[in-house]
Structures
1.
Amino acid sequence: MTVLTEREVNRGDLGKPRFFDRLAKMDLSTSTKTSNLNIIYYVGLAVRGSFPEVVGVTSERIRSSWLRSYVEQLVTRDASELVSGTNSAKLRGYFEALSLNTAGLIASSSLHQAVGITAKSARQYDDLLVDLGVAVDVPAWSTNRLQRLEKRSKRYIVDGGLVTAGA
């Protein structure tokens, strides 16, 4: 299961013309109230979570409880079903470290040393979280012309709600 897009979350707005349709007609006006479009609004969207079970929930306590429970189920039950013998406490610690550093350029050694696991275990946990669909590894890119670009990949937790629940 993947998270919902903002368009899918706001089902009531599906009747409105999409951005590219408006762009084709050169109508870039928007009916969205701009008073709500500030940094607090966008941060709220980012950490709200985009799983179908939580997007309509207005209670922050219920939403965060569901997300924390989802993370616990991932690292205890779902992970052990995919890879038997998975240490759920270590995986939980790794998920927390990854959540705190999502989209960062942290060295793999820093992550696994912070949790107290081996590099091999960290790679297995990375693969496991990708297989569970909650993390993605975006490879770095560079050209010969720009050799000094960072060559490490970035790791992302796919949902902002899981980042806050995991941290």
Note: DSSP finds nine helices and two strands in the chain.
2.
Amino acid sequence: MSMRVIVIGAGIVGASAALTLAEQGSDVIVVDRGLVGCEASGLNAGLIGGGGWGEQPDVDVALSMGSLERYIHLADDLGHDISLDRTGTLILIRTEEEWEWAKTSVDGNRSTGRCFELVDSQALRTLEPAADPSLLGAIFDPLAGHAEPVRATQAFAAAAVIQGADVRTGCGVTDLRQLRGGGWQVDVATDGQPSQVSVDAVVIAAGPWSNEIGRMVGIDIPVVAVRGQMWASAPQPRVLRHGIAAAESACQWMTEDLVDGVPPNLTHHDGRRMTRHLYGRQRPNGEIVFGGDRVLTNDRTIDLAGIAVNHDHTGELFPGFAGRAPSRTWSGLMPFSLDGRPLIGPVSGREGLFVAGGLASSGFGRGPMTGQFVAELVMGIESDYDLASVLVGDRVTLIDG
């Protein structure tokens, strides 16, 4: 059955959802008050997870591997140049504590048939010669990859347009109303000019602004803004072969105590640093790009002290980078859910309203499959996976009774 659907948000989730909806014959409109991929979807490091499907993939595996396959389809089958690189990712290990965490993690994944590898210092130097020789080793994900974030997000939107979707940028939502006879009316404004759109279903994929949209129809979407920030060197000769992460934060977060109203996996609590977080890669243009801080705020102001901590951390892992000062810095706001799980699916009590987001810092890596999942739910297509852990359910609160 053909439907008319509006997707609010032209990030990686919204663009992917629009492509799936359009491919299935729906009449799709995508609106965004900015440009395609102008927020977190285009401001990240571009890392894409892998690890393989394993023997009995759950929804978390499907979000990662399904997204990787959608990127591959976008590049290989649809012909979009997103600079997709499938050389893998290394999570670097500095301490014995990190090594024990990594061993437990890899053993657990390998027991389910996934293909993460724990490599020692010598093997690491073969894989990534620039790494500090004192490192104990790394977790190697040979199926992971990376791509150019803005280009990839725009490619999903372009592919959706080819399938008939209408993507409107500079078009903000000013009001949202459920109609008594069924369906929704969405008020939008383009260049200050108001207009109305009537649709059968609405997908809120507005990142950290999802709650702002939800409140227009009396719902509280438990997603908050978390600032991430990154830095890039000037273009360098090729030195990094893989996507890079550090084990320090993941090891720390395993023992983290949850705090009400605060999402998990932050680097700071109450203005105090709790851990360092690091990930990055080398772009095709030679820039070395890294980032990592996770601060609960909607203030985009760059914390130069945090940039310095991240730069120093990179220098510990790659001594040759220590003297390569950042040539540019930037920040963005990521959508963290309060319970740490994605939010995907219909909102109870608001028929025809769907939410897709809350992907925290892995939106680029899990966004394409999140978009596909929510699009399938809109169209009533039964999923091959148990989505119970990510469904909206009672996690979204009705605030007007």
Note: The CA atoms of residues 39 and 356 lie 16 Å apart.
3.
Amino acid sequence: MDSVSPSTPVDFSDGPGTDLRDGLQEFRVRYPNRKRMVSGLPWNYRVCGEGPRALLMLPGGLGNDLAFGLVAGLVSRFRVVYPAYPVVQSLADVLYGIAAILTAENIASVSICGVSTGGMVAQCFMRRYPERVERLVLSNTGVPIAHWKHGRRAANAILSMAPWPLLRVPLAMSITKLLDAPAADRPFWRAYAKELFAKYVTKAEVLSNLRLQLEYQEDWHFSPEDLAGWPGKVFIVESDNDIFNNPTRREAMLDTYPLAPMYTIRGGGHMPAFTRTGEYLEMLRQFL
């Protein structure tokens, strides 16, 4: 999804904290989006830093600046590729587009950090292009669970019929709730989410993301044997209060990746990569 142009001023009417506001603005200016057409689809992506190793940052599907604080803490050691997903019809389009971007940037192999829906994309990419993946961080995400497709299909149908002006406010509120940021940072994230859905995210992009989630549950199936012969390592990150985490999803993750260490962030919500950045960075540095 397209994110704000780095030259566009940001109106945070809710009065965000100066550090977060300035960090976001600096990130947008320093790492503007590059543009590339892949199989007729327009991709935007940022390349951040000039570290000796490549790290692919896969977002949950809402632009590519939500992780500005995390990326800023990684650029001294990594060359971070941070794409935004265009409107697509299938996960195959996403996987091929990411591979094409890495090739265009002369990156043969990467470590991947996949957050939420980005973790879904990361797991599919690793299985489609295992030779291009060194290490895999799966953060606040899950593996396909077939019977969940029914609820996802019903929710998608309802959302597809709802007028976009009526969806924007509850979507922005849901992102703020999922972030579960510390109290002092909540005004910033409320303003960020409000602006995101008011100006930069379209209904077509939201529905595209929802289609990918449904396809993931319907058509993909993982097992521990998928990793046979793959020399890389998997690391799992969860939060103890992630509203999407439950015993079924957790058990399925552990069954699929029985050798993967798991790190639990206390009180991190669904997106600790963005709201518990210091702890998250230290964890990433140790694994990567």
Note: Residues 203-219 form the longest helix (17 residues).
